[in-house]
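Shape matters. As here.
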Amino acid sequence: MRDDHTAQIRVRLNAAAAQIRARIDAKAAQIDRQLNEERGPLQVPIVPDIDLMMRLST
């Protein structure tokens, strides 16, 4: 009987945790969309590191 109760509690906690994770993911996606609208997608220029290339080539 006690194991059944523990299992029920575990199921409820896992369901609640899944709902919380889904809400966090949705909020993160919303914030990401807002940031992309405000500043555009993040663009990082690719600049070759000449010193590193020289050290790797030797």
About this structure: The chain has two helices and no strands. The CA atoms of residues 9 and 45 lie 51 Å apart. The helical segments are 2-39, 50-57.
